[in-house]
Known about the structure:
12 strands; alpha/beta; 28% helix
Amino acid sequence: MPDKTQSPMILILGGTADAMRIAAKVFARYGQSHTVMTSLAGRVKTPQNPIGEVRIGGFGGIDGLKAYLRTHNVVAVIDATHPFAAQMSRHASLACDAIGVKRVQVRRPEWPKVAGDNWIEVDTVPEAAALLPSLGKRAFLTVGLGELAPFRDMHEIWNLVRVVDEPAEPLLNGPHLTIAARGPFHEADERALMAEHEIDVVVTKHAGGDATYGKLAVARERNIPVVMVRRPPAEAGDTCAPDGVLNWLEHTLPHEVTP
Ligand code: NAP
């Protein structure tokens, strides 16, 4: 049973820079009247600390999330996970619908495709990996640690792999170099990195947002292809841009608890 004496909670599903900015804004507006909690999956070794409270680790599937929402008196869920964290978004949608908690999915604008871009769009990372040897010899892989399996036994090309944390073991069996770095990545640095390693093809997921756009501008400049993995669709229900969350909360939370 929920403890009705505890303050109502606004739960932010995080793991992104957008979620960090959203937590700061929501805390500034609702921190006196609500618990503002950011939830992180616990994938990176040293997560950045959002303003407000933080919990780390999975909820234990849809039922676990339903139990969390009930016992913590959650009144609104802001799904600010990465556009490719589709399972978490699905679970949030199903759990909130099942018990009547309001939820919004934050959608960053997609990157615009402009003249000079040579994007080869695919639906999955394995499709991207299958195409790669036909497109170049020196690839820049920015798909995330959890998506590297299809590249693991690739021997015909050299890969530059960028991940957040320094890995304990080699990530690929074929020729490669791993660099550990956390965005935002500035265009000038991407230009220097891609020139240094003579990159002739880029593989990325269509995340959107400014923080990782630089490599796409540089790919255009270098006139090289980008294998672009399309985004999964949004969940049904409310969506908003990252700067639309406060507006959504204002219209969603009951007026008597809105400061
Ligand atoms: P996912 O496949 O959608 O989720 C897998 C499981 O991880 C979920 O079922 C849930 O476990 C747990 N989980 C995911 N996000 C969580 C959160 N914010 N709080 C608590 N538990 C969470 O997720 P993913 O693609 O592995 O991404 C994991 C996290 O990294 C996300 O929070 C996402 O925002 C961030 N991230 C992902 C990417 C990407 O490319 N996928 C890129 C940058 C950042 P339970 O079922 O046990 O609840």
